[in-house]
Predict the 3D structure of the following.
Amino acid sequence: MFLKILVPHDGSAASDRALRKAISLGKRLNYEIILLHVIDLKLLQSD
């Protein structure tokens, strides 16, 4: 059985909410939280 929750996070408000929910669930079930920080490389490119 898996005892981990993978949470992709891009810095948006929606991903902040998802992270808070995952942390709450992880604490309740004693699951490990794995945070995956996602960056949109197109936003970093200069023209």
Notes: The chain has one domain: 4-44. The mean pLDDT is 93. The beta strands are 4-9, 32-37.
